Amino acid sequence: MNKNKLYNRIIFKNKFKEITLAEHGIILNKRGKIKKEILFSELDQIYISVNKMKLRDKFLIILVLLFSGLFSHLYLQVDIPIILAYLTVIIFILKMNKFRNYTLQIRLKNGTAFEKKIAVKLKQEAIDLINEIRKEIYDSKINNGTKILIEICA
Questions:
Q1: What is the CA 67 to chain-centroid distance, rounded?
Q2: What pLDDT digit, counting tens, does each position of 78-124 carry?
Q3: The pTM is what?
Q4: Three-state secondary-structure class, residue 118
Q5: ∠147-149-154 over CA atoms, to 5°?
Q6: What residues form the membrane-spanning segments (predicted)?
Q7: Do 67 and 140 belong to one domain?
Q8: Which residues are within 8 A (CB) of 138 and not within 5 positions of it... i.e. 6 or more apart?
Q9: I need a labelling partner for 15 at 20 to 30 A (CA). Which of 27, 79, 102, 141 fits?
Q10: How many Å from the N-terminal Cα to the C-terminal Cα in the chain?
Q11: Closest CA to 36 of 96, 108, 92
């Protein structure tokens, strides 16, 4: 594989706390007072990804719950804990299919990635912000295109 292609696949992840829309780009507020300004021309992608619970984590939790019920039944000789353990497993299976968290991801053209975890309640605000940023990117591309066209015609 070519080194340039390999370099483009390497993604460095940075976390940020707040994103602000500026005139010529976006401003990411990292931990403390560190701010990073990113121009619209440097942005490659901006999107929200859905993160669900991994299958192995689900399987591990279900196994722990089942073994705790089996242990209580075999060693404690009590039927109520086993019923409660199996009931807990059933409730957990129903709840875990609904478990989601969201991540706002910003990728730059140089391969750097920025991430911010988003609560379910704030998902719609993040979508609105992404749409505003994409609109500004589109407007800046059109303005740059018309400037180049005017310079060529002049």
A1: 33
A2: 666 667 767 777 777 777 767 678 888 888 888 888 888 888 888 88
A3: 0.61
A4: strand
A5: 95
A6: 59-76, 82-99
A7: no
A8: none
A9: 141
A10: 45
A11: 108
How many residues would you count in the chain?
Answer: 154
| Type of residue found at 144 | N
Q: How many other C-beta atoms are found inside a 10 Å radius of the C-beta of residue 53?
A: 15
CB 36 within 8 A of CB 27: yes
What confidence tens digit (pLDDT) does each residue in 24-72 have? 888 888 777 778 888 888 888 888 888 877 778 778 877 877 777 777 7
**Dmax over Cα atoms in the chain, in whole Å?**
92
Composition of the chain by helix, strand, coil, percent to 5: 55, 30, 15
Domain of 86 in residue numbering reads as 55-96
Residues 149 and 137 in one domain: yes
Alpha-carbon span 85 to 92, nearest angstrom: 10
Helix (H, G, I), strand (E, B) or coil at 78: coil
